[in-house]
Amino acid sequence: MYKIIKNRDINGYLALVREREELITSCLLYKTNEKTLRQKEFVGLIQNNAYEVQPLVPETFKIEFQGYGKLVMLLHKVDGEGVIRLQNKKDPKDTIYLDFRLQRKTKGDPLTVI
What we know:
four-stranded antiparallel beta sheet; alpha+beta; 3 helices
């Protein structure tokens, strides 16, 4: 996930979050144009060169299990936010935290973003 965001790989990002976005937009009854606007907003954020991806420092994050162990997140130990962070180059106080929840539908399956 980190490499996809750092490399600003839009196709990789869209493939990564496809299942999550389908679930969110169907559960919240998004219209087709709203789905497109949501996607454009996230893509625009990733492509925005005003933000740089902060380096990952393994000592600063923890794994948190949710949903009786069916979901997992990587969170920053200090503030409990996502470990993938986009920081504005001109204003360091302007930081965007990207949260990803991962699931494994059945034992042995690969982790997927949900």
